[in-house]
Write a structure and sequence with these properties.
With 715 residues, the protein is an alpha+beta fold. The protein is built from 26 helices and 22 strands. Among the domains are: 193 residues, no CATH class; 123 residues, Calcium-transporting ATPase, cytoplasmic domain N (3-Layer(aba) Sandwich), CATH 3.40.1110.10. The radius of gyration is 34 Å and the shape is elongated.
């Protein structure tokens, strides 16, 4: 049982990454791994030898359990083979030679001391900490079996307790169970190692005399590096020269490549796919975005959960339940006059009551859900955020950049009498084609999308705050808003006025196209709604979650977007500083709120909501106020969270109920309640059943992997 409750009061724990502390990110990120031949196996290697520093696996690594398991298994074979009971069961005669009778006791003792060591040490530690649990139960069971077996082997008291094979299999099965558990806990750490493996081992630094290949650890901020096509960025930096399509999926979860040119920031671990770029390094090692993400994943896996505390309590209860049942069993069978039976039953009770499945029930679900989320670009900073997500009544989206792209989009074209919509749009696009303004780019994009042929424009001039001007076929053409019409002293034709008024009422920006003093037509520009937003809103509503929107935009703009997306409630004209008041207002109605924002100016709102979700953070995982960071820009990732939260909660409960119920039912059986009917369990059968219950829990947790969390697959 992870004693996670002792982390809460220890501020130092939070900084160490708490729970299962794999090497601090500084080591993984700055020192090149010892074997530099690519990164093959580097993650696995690190993971297996990672020493856990907290909870029941303190000081244990996956490799330790694995090695002990295989050796114990090898030693168990002769023990089982030379066991009279096994020979009798399977009807064979083990070979007899001088000393053959001592094979089981001698190898059994080795197994007890070597294979049983983690449990014996763990049991002692639990006694010292006064938190009796799983390790103490296993330690008690194998110690009773060990003592009883030696008493038999030495012929003291005439007992016939051939327990050596039981002891051997018991220890082997327990080690296997723990190895599986450690691997499962470590597999989510695998997400960390995968991140560490994103860093190349070497970088090409550009010097006055050419380039030199150096280990990544020797890079400094300010260095100029060359990143060739297909190579990974060795550090964070800004592109100085060249342009390339970067694959940033490992950071953002977005599969499309992103064009990055001079002046654009790039991040360690991303891949320049098609051409080489020169990059000025801005951050190395611990300071990189990648290191930030690693710290996040670590903290998420360490942060305790409410269900974990429940499992801890259940394990303590089961310990007393098992110990009490063991004592009663021993007394009852001894009174019935059968000491061998008493020992057998007592050991079986102690073994079967091991809350082993319980120990696995929660950590595994936590580990797998964190890992699955990270794969979907959802970085969970705070475990409780994921647990609360299933109880959320309303999701409050910040409009700009979340439900909309924050980029203008051409919505409509209207023309004066005698003009043609295509030629008006082509003319506007020709005039705007030299401008870098987002509105200009949107007009050119719209014209290209309609496959229009753009006439040649010359003499482009930008009229600040009014519009743009250029010469097309010898005529002066202006494109701009109402201020431009006033300056040129032209009047909008009545045939246009109807359309443009409707656009303005909806909150759209209107640009007129004026050719030598004649208004030919107008176009409307609106903040583009993300196509994924519609799916996100309707899917949330189908799950019984209301959707609200908060924005600083005018009412008519907000209403237009809300009507388009069928949003339940709208807060418009809200200043950034007042967004958290809207969260409080919803909470005042008794609703549980998840706030989704870009984490830039809505930190107070994110902090106040039950769950704060920072979206589109990409690499900026340091959004302090958010419990969850969505690396990509897809609002459907919020659904992935709701689904994951509900599914992982279900799995936790299924596992807790199964593990606890299983123990409560199996202990009386092991104690021999049904012995009169001929139903008795041997200790080995008990161990197999106990491990079977663990396997059921582990497999049930693995079912979380079937959950479709990719935002594009959310329905």
């Amino acid at each position: 049982m992870q004693n996670h409750h002792d982390m809460q009061d220890d501020p130092a724990m939070h900084h160490q990454g708490g729970g299962h502390d794999h090497q601090p990110p500084s080591r993984t990120l700055t020192e090149p791994p010892a074997h530099s031949a690519g990164h093959t196996g580097h993650g696995q290697h690190d993971d297996d030898h990672t020493i856990h520093t907290h909870g029941q696996h303190a000081g244990h690594s996956t490799a330790m359990f694995k090695n002990r398991f295989w050796l114990t298994l090898a030693l168990s074979i002769p023990v089982v083979y030379f066991s009279p009971m096994m020979a009798h069961l399977l009807g064979y005669m083990p070979p007899e030679f001088p000393g053959s009778a001592w094979i089981p006791p001698v190898l059994g003792t080795v197994i007890f001391l070597y294979g049983g060591q983690p449990f014996l040490k763990g049991g002692l530690q639990e006694l010292r900490d006064r938190t009796p649990g799983m390790m103490l139960l296993i330690a008690m069971a194998i110690t009773v079996a060990f003592a009883a077996s030696w008493v038999t082997s030495l012929g003291i008291g005439g007992f016939d307790l051939d327990f050596w094979w039981e002891l051997a299999l018991l220890v082997a099965i327990m080690l296997l169970g723990h190895w599986i558990e450690m691997r499962a806990l470590g597999s989510a750490q695998g997400a960390l190692d995968a991140l560490a493996a994103l860093l190349p081992d070497e970088a090409e630094r550009i010097t006055d005399s050419g380039t030199e290949t150096i280990p990544v650890s020797e890079l400094n901020p300010g260095d100029l590096v060359l990143v060739r096509p297909g190579a990974r960025m060795p550090a964070d930096g800004n592109v100085v020269d060249g342009q390339a399509e970067f694959d940033e999926s490992m950071i953002t979860g977005e599969s499309k490549t992103v064009a990055r040119g001079a002046g654009d920031p790039v991040v360690a671990g991303t891949v320049a796919t098609d051409s080489s770029v020169r990059v000025r390094v801005t951050a190395v090692g611990d300071q990189t975005a990648l290191a930030g993400i690693q710290r996040l994943v670590e903290e998420a896996q360490a942060s305790s959960s409410r269900a974990q505390a429940l499992a801890d309590r259940a394990a303590a209860f089961l310990f007393y339940f098992a110990a009490g049942a063991g004592v009663l069993t021993f007394i009852a069978w001894t009174l019935m006059g059968s000491v061998p039976d008493a020992v057998t039953r007592t050991v079986t009770v102690l073994v079967i009551a091991c809350p082993h499945a319980l120990g696995l029930a929660i950590p595994l679900v936590i580990a797998i859900s964190t890992e699955q989320a990270a794969r979907a670009g959802v970085l969970i900073k705070n475990r409780m955020a994921l647990e609360r997500m299933r109880t959320i009544d309303v999701v409050l989206f910040d409009k700009t950049g979340t439900l909309t792209t924050g980029e203008p989009e051409l919505k409509d074209v209207a023309v004066a009498e005698g003009a043609d919509a295509h030629s008006v749009l082509a003319l506007a696009a020709a005039v705007e084609s030299d401008s870098e303004h987002p509105v200009a780019r949107a007009i050119v994009r719209a014209a290209k999308a309609r496959n229009l042929l753009l006439p040649a424009a010359t003499g482009f001039t930008s009229l600040t705050g009014r519009g743009v001007r250029a010469t097309v076929d010898g005529r002066t053409v202006h494109v701009g808003g109402p201020a431009l019409l006033r300056e040129l002293g032209v009047v909008e034709p009545a045939s246009l006025a109807g359309s443009t008024k409707a656009w303005m009422d909806r909150g759209a920006a209107v640009l007129h196209v004026v050719d030598d003093g004649n208004v030919l037509g107008a176009v409307s520009m609106e903040d583009a709604v993300r196509p994924e937003s519609r799916q996100a809103v309707s899917a949330l509503q189908r799950r019984g979650v209301k959707v609200a929107m908060v924005t600083g935009d005018a009412h008519q703009v907000a209403q237009a977007v809300a009507a388009d997306l069928e949003i339940d409630e709208v807060f418009a004209e809200v200043l950034p500083a007042d967004k958290d008041k809207k969260v409080a207002e919803l909470q005042g109605r008794g609703l549980k709120v998840a706030m989704v924002g870009d984490g830039v100016n809505d930190s107070p709102a994110l902090a106040r909501a039950e769950v704060g979700i920072a979206i589109g953070a990409g690499t900026d995982v340091a959004v302090e106020s958010a419990g969850v960071v969505l690396a990509g820009n897809d609002p459907r990732a919020v659904l992935s969270m709701v689904d994951l939260s509900r599914a992982s909660y279900r799995k936790m409960w299924q596992n807790l109920v199964w593990a606890t119920g299983y123990n409560i039912l199996s202990v009386p059986l092991a104690a021999g309640v049904l012995a009169f009917a001929g139903v008795v369990l041997s200790p080995a059968a008990g161990a197999v059943l106990m491990s079977a219950s663990t396997v059921v829990v582990a497999l049930n947790a693995q079912l979380l992997r079937r959950l479709k969390l990719n935002p594009s697959e959310v329905r």
